[in-house]
Write a structure and sequence with these properties.
Helix 2 runs antiparallel to helix 3 (139-156) and helix 3 (139-156) runs antiparallel to helix 4. Strand 14 and strand 15 (329-332) form a beta hairpin. This protein folds into 3 domains: 3-115, Immunoglobulin-like (Sandwich), CATH 2.60.40.1120; 122-208; 219-347, Glutaredoxin (3-Layer(aba) Sandwich), CATH 3.40.30. The relative contact order is 0.08. Strands 13-12-11-14-15 form a 5-stranded mixed beta sheet, covered by helices on one side. The N and C termini lie far apart (98 Å). The chain is an alpha+beta fold and 351 residues long. The chain contains 11 helices and 15 strands.
Length: 351
Amino acid sequence: MSKIFRILIILLMATPFIGFSQKNNFVIKGKIGQLNSPAKVYLKYYTGTKTKIDSAVLHNGKFEIHGYLSKINRGIFYVNPKGTGTSRDDYRYLYIDKGTTIVKSTGTAKVATATGTQIILEDNEYQAALAEANKAVTPADAQKERFIAAQHFIKAHHTSVICLSALYAHITSVEPQKLEALFLTLAPEIRNSSDGKGIFTTLQVLKKVAIGQIAPDFSQPDTNGRQIQLSSLRGKYVLLDFWASWCIPCRKENPNLIKLYDLYKNSNFTILGVSLDALSEKDEWLKAISKDRLTWPQVSDLKTENAAAKLYGVTSVPQSFLIDPDGRIIEKDLKGTELEQKLAEILGRCN
């Protein structure tokens, strides 16, 4: 065998191993109690525009997953004792970076701890601050404390991708101008990332529907296909209510809305419901209106991404906007007692 041929054989044999090392730059390993097969752990993360799910069988609780990342990723780590796939029954978010991450738990993903990389260290610091904030006496105080924690973290770690999650967690509860000011303190590489650009775009939309702004106009068909335009309701106070038939919190709030609508419908007040149900859910939307006995106007374009919801920056429901007779937004996301008190104040009546 010639020397050149022997060299070629050696190179060909080595190629798969070189390729393997290039395709794996992170390791997630650890121990989940004493679980054994068929129990599995799953790791869901994103590579460009694709979603990838890796898994590993547990042997006396031990597992190891290898993968490749081009940048830090916020994945989801699942534990399934039956090994039948990812399940929302037991999971936790997990930041993944190049190198080795150690995950340990007594038996579930929810209580799992992680160590090993700089991004994990930063996340542990942020989660500890949030846990402290959640000790506040009232939900409102806890929300304020969580935002304070987010502000402190962002100021101390402006080059961390965790800042984007910290901002997004308050996207509907804090004035967009405040969030934008925080966003602009982030490092350029964070602001200019795909997630950063997405948050910035959302903030520009939310600034247009902030308190004090004229409510953007739109028109959508009601349950009979008749177009209803928001501006046609000018001259009245309007509660613009974004909801969906599948939204449990929305449905639970409906009895309160019914009470308030019946009380104030003859006092310059109305409600316009906008459903985020898709075309395949039209029957469920109509059934929900009937079952919940909703008598105010209901509209929807029955698209996967409702155009009005997109216009108002609505990414989850329920969300609402209280609009005055001049078409100006005066309050957002009032529910229960808060909504009752506000309507009593502006309409000059009490329950």
